[in-house]
Amino acid sequence: MNMWVKPVLTVLSLCLLCGCSTGTKISQADLDAFRPGQTREADVIAKLGPPTSRTDTIGGESVLSYHYARSSDGVKSAIPAAGALAGGIAGSLAGLLGGVAGSMAGDPAAQTQDVALTFQADGTLKSITRTSS
Predict the structure, then answer these.
(1) Half-sphere exposure of 3 (CA within 13 A, CB side)
(2) Residue 40: beta bridge partners?
(3) Radius of gyration of the chain from Cα atoms?
(4) By Cβ atoms counted within 10 A, which residue in 54, 80, 86, 100 is the most buried?
(5) Which has the minimum average pLDDT: 11-25, 29-43, 57-71, 72-86?
(6) Separation of alpha carbons 115 and 72, rounded Å
(7) Greater pLDDT, 10 or 63
(8) What is the pLDDT of residue 12?
(9) Given pLDDT bands bounded at 50, 70 and 90, which one contains residue 87?
């Protein structure tokens, strides 16, 4: 195999991977199915899967948080990653983190969504908060 084939394939693979999404995207229809005072935490997890995080409050309430992010700008995101592969270990982490964050900020098609579901001490749903960009 030629010397340049493996690096080129690696960069092309990164181009495809960097344009993907992370987390769980939740539709409004999914949220509309949940009823305050009736829906239990286990019901939400069964429908949406495990949350990104779970926080317990001092008052006995709990909050399930779901985060979703998507960037469609795979090639732009992969350029810092390719540079990081050519550079050293110290530069690779900074290059990858800076490249992904920068590409999300400059990508007009990028999407983020945060959903927080708060449950009362008895385990039933209290409220839902959803933000999107």
Answers:
(1) 0
(2) 124
(3) 20
(4) 80
(5) 72-86
(6) 21
(7) 63
(8) 42
(9) very low
pTM of the entire predicted model? 0.61
Burial (CB < 10 A; 0-12, 13-18, 19+), residue 37, is exposed
Burial class of residue 133 in the structure, from the number of CB atoms within 10 Å of its CB (0-12 exposed, 13-18 middle, 19+ buried): exposed
**Number of domains into which the chain is organized:** 1
Dist CA 30 CA 23 (whole Å)? 15
What's the CATH number where 73 sits? Answer: 3.30.1450.10
Could you tell me which residue, 31 or 88, shows the higher pLDDT?
Answer: 31
For 35, the token pair is 């009823």
